[in-house]
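protien #1 (seq + structre)
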Amino acid sequence: MCAMMSSARDPAPSRLSYRAQRLWLTPLFRRALLRGVPLVALMAVPVVWLSDADRREALHAQIAEIRRQIETRPEFMVTLMAVDGASAEVDEDIREVLPLDFPVSSFDLDLEEMRATVAGLDAVKSAQMRIRPGGVLELTVLERVPAVVWRGVDGLELLDGQGHRVAPIAARAQRPDLPLVAGEGADAAIPEALSLIAAAAPIERRLRGVVRIGARRWDVVLDRGQRILLPETGAIAALERVIALTQVSDLLARDVTTVDMRNPVRPTVRLAPGAVEDLRRIRRLQAGASNG
């Protein structure tokens, strides 16, 4: 009897079973087991499936085909480009730097990069780009307006009012309506040059251009080989002074080659060689008459 009682099973749970039951009663563990394990198993399926290289390649090809079908739908296709605000020459340059092969998908167009490319042209001040309904790539351009002809080391170039390069020209005769500016550093001082040209309006018919000297001051060049040498500072006031003297005493109508205003306190005038000889002869005659 005692042997039978000793061999009977102990109804108390084992330590491992007790811990498992306690763990199962924990809400966090139960949620993790009931939801986490199925989720991990579910995520493992595509991982196992994509572990095969052939399957991955086929999937990539299928995705690329779906994307191609979407991007080439008619509503996403661009069929032409319209350029507004550009001259014929600039329009030609734009189409040269943007060699688009229409029709093209709008997904293949980087509008900002294209806009920056067009804005980088010398003759373009600003550019805006958008795709209009109907598959039209619209480009709106604001061109730089040439203000002067600059004679630089590389030849003749058109510059705008701020000194930005617009375009090269082959000969001065192509733009006789624009004033001529020359000399080292003249392109960096175009606003000042334009102010001098405006101040020279009373002698505009005789004006041939302005020359930057030593990248620090200006000479005003007139016809008949005359020059007005201006100081580094107060150039406009010095030029206006010379024009005022001309209006009163016909200074520039005389045989004068140079009017030097670099020292405003002591302006000097250089006469032509013939005029100097005539002046000397007159003085000799006057001296002879007084001695007689």
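ok now protien #2
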Amino acid sequence: MKQIVKLRVKELANYQGSYYLDWWQNGKRHYEYLKLYIDLTPNAPRAVKAKNKEVEEIAMNVRNQRENELMTNPYGINTDKKKTTICEYIASFKNGQAIGLHTIRHIKLFFGGDFLIAKITKEMIYDFYEYLCKTVSPKTTNMYLRKMHACLKQAAMEHLMDGSALNNFPRAPQTKKPVTYLTPEELTKLKATTIRGKESTRAFLFACFTGLRFSDVRKLTWKEVTEDNYLLFSQQKTQIDNYGNAYAYTQLPLNEQALEVLGERGEPNERIFKKLPNAMNVNRSLKTWAKKAGVDKNIHFHISRHTFGVIMLQSGVDIYTVSKLLGHDSVTTTSKYYANLTQEKAVEAVAKFPKI
């Protein structure tokens, strides 16, 4: 898609470059200098190139926000930054728009309306944090705070507000809940039970045998299933950028049970689970399914992913391999969810130490 707002670099002295935006609005050409600088030294060392990349990503984020503002705001881009309000700014972020809208709603409820982003203070942030703690769950509080922090951090980089207001940004304490998963016996019960929402149950079982997220199961096509029974796909959450482009791929071997769920191969561009409803309706079907099968657990689609991880660990697969199969960025993420299980394995391993 053709860019309406262009990101450019002005060359300065001493091999320095300054990012600025260039766009047409109401028949006039506008410029906005972002006060973001890069090093244009030829054959720069790797550390300098990495820093340039970080600055470029920030500048591109600003460009995307301005283009969104130009396309959606009847008055175009607000060239007077000092008049930018916090709710307008959060709404300009394309990523996580649903969370952004909920955050905006609570900001307006607590503060009695919108206000200039330049006026925000540390005290206001902490007051809002205390309000959220009393109003929503700790998990939801942190979800809204993360959204707010990401937006305000960007605003501080654009010199729209005082960045010191973000120091020691609050976070609600959360109690760790044990991971809910299904045992092989419970999976057997479910597999033997049929309900009307067959596509939902088929997708759930496939996820139990592969560890895929709902977002990945839903978009799978037959061309992503190789002839030698591998899944070759990009994970929606960790391998696709903000513009929908894949920058990495996962290669996942399919076991016999997963292949059984897939059934007969379709056309390359055809979705494997083409009649799969949205997540809310899928979870509703899964709860009906569990009740009919006599599985007394609060079942939802993500339990399938935990089921895969737990069964792999309990079958003796090491946590590093499980981490790779689940597509986690780090084994630390895997350990966070399955710490109690890895501890059990550690106790078993130490008990096997030979007598000397």
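The first strand starts at residue 6 and ends at 11.
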